[in-house]
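Second attempt. The first submission of BTAD domain-containing putative transcriptional regulator had a stray character pasted in from the spreadsheet, which I only caught after the job came back as garbage. Lesson logged: always re-copy from the clean sequence file. Corrected sequence (622 aa) follows.
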Amino acid sequence: MTDIFTETRPGEAESGAAGERAGARLRVDLLGPLCATRDGLPLPLGPLKQRLVLAVLLTRPNAPVSLEELTDAVWPDDPPRTARKNLQVYVSTLRRVLDPDDLGRLHHGPGGYVLHLGADECDSLRFEELARCGDAEVRAGAPSRAARFYRQALDLWRHEPFSDLAGRADVLRAAVARRHVRRLAVYEAWAEAQLETGDAAAVADTVDEMVARHPLRERLRAAQITALHRVGRRTESLAAYDDCRQQLSRELGLEPGTAVRGAYRAVLADAAPPRPSGGATGPRLLPPGLADFTGRAREAEAVAARLGGEGGPPVLLTGPAGVGKTALAVHVAHRLAAHYPDGVVATRLCAEDGSVRPWASVLAELARALGCTERLPAGREEAATAWRSWLSGRRILLVLDDAPDAAALGPLLPPSGPTAALVTSRSRLPGLEAAHRTELPPLSPDEALGLLGGIIGRTRAAAEPAAAARIVAATGLLPFALRAAGNRLCVLRHMPLGQYADRLEHPAEALDELASGGVGVRTRLAGTWARLPLPARDTLDALAALPGPAFSLPTAARALGVEGRAAQRALENLIDVGVLPPPPCPEVTAHAASAEESVRYELPWLTLLFAREQASGRDTRC
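This time the job returned cleanly.
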């Protein structure tokens, strides 16, 4: 099998990556051994410690890296008294090597040293540029062009990033881990786009090696099962599903999720007769419910009551990223499965990186999962009509997770009748006029402490109650962040809770700490950020520059440089997209200069930290 680190395609790498570099004098590559060239000639990067300095700067190109970070990387145990002077010498030498014309490419500013590079000068920046182009083509419904961009990005990888240096500094090991997760996500996006084009052979040739590296990655497993099936290797496809099911059960105690089950059902559908409509039990394709599902009794009852009747408008669960919308939707769907004998199926409308999945792909997945053998038309309205006709008279529950807007739901929602839809969204979806809405707030402090104790052990949590309370407060009482913190503490079993609370309360460390298994809060927030309209990002940027998370309307107006009414509309837009919670009812006091001053808004703490990272240009990819 071709090694996926070194695979290139004739003409493609030249026209994609190398062709873009034509004429660029400086080139720095880190997706493999660290090297730099000018006009194709290698540059001397000096001794080990000097190369370490350059490598750490390259973990965050175009963003400041502090002197302390550089010191920790070069001398992790016992820095000499001359460390600062030595670093200045290394940086000065690198400046002469990389920037002989003194263009300010490497300079010291607020926050530390900054190495400025363009996408045509650094392979990792070019990788991200190509990946973003691929994402844009997916959103535009052009899988063939998307697959080409993703393939060009993947072809830039020569070997392990910093392969000659990564073992010498924690910061480099962490950077390499982030880049591997990012590369995996791009590979998965390429595989899905390639499958959309009808060319499964390229995926089938490389996916087994990727699965060997990431056997528990369900998105990757779904692509493997589908690719093997479509190239005629049905037995291997079924074996891949069985291997996935056994590994998930053995290592995580879980059943395969919606994507893997949908791919498996597509394989079976080639040989199985259509399911009879009378008296048969339909598919139950739901993620497993959480064994430690905590709280939400009132909201669960409200949603279940709306769905327990005969059809009706969609039920919409809204709230910010990480508040537990999906977990509640799955919990209720399992509870009500018996009410829907023709099937209960869940699917995501957005990918993990926040990009919107094409409606045709989602509709095809739902149809396959539910055993719909009719060929749906290509046109949006015609496909929606055929889909609703097929659903008519069937008692099916559709769980449509992470809807970006009302338009994405248009072709998928069932007609009036026994089929029901449970929708989750970060946005309030004002365009979905007839929906029954339930806003999901963060957990209560008691619920959050109960969830944390259930993950790390109630004895451990009870031994340091004040520290446990600080941890749940630092996560914003969000279940996703609490799970990330709890899983991290399960690894750091030796660490006192108070020490971990100190880390979470430090603005520069909190998002780094709230990560587990390669996916963390920063990734979830990045997906929200990617879907924000540009005006909403600008508003969030301005609010992030305020001293703290809480502010009044006049303060927001000054930060935005607009009048009060315009500022109010900007804040309401953030509320609509689920970034800013609605303010509590105002309480006018003697200290409030006006009714406007008494209305207090507050950005969620983790959202504020992420927005500040974006404003500072820090690399937020996980």
